[in-house]
Description:
CATH topology of the largest domain: UDP-n-acetylglucosamine1-carboxyvinyl-transferase, Chain
Number of helices: 14
Helix content: 25-40%
Strand order of the largest sheet: 22-23-1-24
Oligomer: single chain
Shape: elongated
Strand content: 25-35%
CATH architecture of the largest domain: Alpha-beta prism
CATH superfamily of the largest domain: Enolpyruvate transferase domain
Distance between the termini: 6 Å
Bound molecules: uridine-diphosphate-2(N-acetylglucosaminyl) butyric acid
Largest sheet: 4 strands, mixed
Radius of gyration: 22 Å
Amino acid sequence: MDKFIIEGPTPLKGTIPISGSKNAAMPLMAASLLASSPTKLNLIPRLNDIYTFKKVIEETGTSVVFDGGSNSMVLNPANLHNTEAPYELVRRMRASFYMLGALIGNAGEAKVSLPGGCAWGPRPVDLHLKGFEAMGVKIKLGQGYVFASIDNASVEGGEFTLNPSSVGATINLVLGAVKRAKKFVIKNAAKEPDVVLLCRMLVEMGADIEGIGTDTLTIQKVDELKGVEYSNDPDRIEAGTFMIAAAMHPESDVTLTGCRPEQLGKFPESFNKLGVECTIDGSVIRIKSTDNLQPVSVTTKIYPGFPTDLQAQWATLMTQAGGTSMVTDTVYFDRFSYVPELNRLGGNLKVEKNRVTIVGKTQLSGASVMSTDLRASVSLVMAAMVAKGTSEILRVYHLDRGYEQLEEKLNRVGASIKRVPQ
Ligand code: EPU
């Protein structure tokens, strides 16, 4: 296991290229299992979550060749013979649960481990299972596994309303339905760019999906999907993270390249209230910070609302704003494990139910901190980059799951981050 040693404070100055999206890549990888010929995916980031999902897929007999140098991946399900996703892999990463939809689509049956809890709460999969039942798939639970099967080559389908709207359940149901359900309608479907990208790729493969990008998806069965070459989206959460990181130090001036700013939803609305200069030109976002950062309260919502995956970073930024602000998470109610650690660095944050109140501006100072998940970890890195002195961030394996070359990217624009064995 590694840790980071970070010296601060350091302004960030220069250009950071944005990598491919982790959360969009995995559904595309799962969709490749539905094709009758190989699929080539581009802009796939070199991340531990991607390597884990590659292993899960390889368990089935599918060949997966990942060329990290060119960020491209070729998946060929021609030899898929095993329809199980085992506990030891699924427990490492919840997105492995996409194998349920992918295997129902490919083989008409699946045995997939239930993912279990996660660092910030139970994170149920009840909607995935109820949705498949509504489609006509038989679902049984036993020994910690979901056993899914269908009687004939296809099921009748039907209609299912997601309440609440869920990214993962929408993706799983789409994967399961495209080759198996005569007609299946998903209401209150997630509209996140990750869902849109998956549906567009499936349509290119030959699927029949209507309502892409809206909250009602209508899927009609097709007999065959062919492999395609398709490009992943850039990571909007990585872009948002670096925008926030740039705003944290008054002298920072950072240019982000390879972005899709329109996929940031309402995030720029909040960002523009900070007093920071933010210019968007095509796929390039430039952030010039300010020494008079304004407190801005935010509430997370499903897309296009303020993303829950940026709330920890935002609360961290607010430690540097001149006044009091609040961050409320309505998607997850207990995603605040970073708060005690930020307070150890000198922050003044208090959690009550699903809301954290931040009193700024506080001078942060170096300390040893540890975190429990990806977005909490990156927030601690951001805090350490403006804290006075030396900080130690323990358990950086969380970061390796979801930020491609984080320390290399940040060191190139002026940070001082060393990775050492823990
Ligand atoms: N929910 C249920 N039942 C279900 C599924 C979801 O009640 O069966 C609830 C959840 O508890 C939550 C809400 O629905 O309150 C939304 O959860 P969703 O299913 O949309 O989340 P997810 O698909 O499990 C993805 C991302 C998360 C991101 C959320 C919300 C991936 C692999 N994960 O999770 O990303 O926070 O959507 O946008 O795409 C991250 O990248 O750090 C991360 C955790």
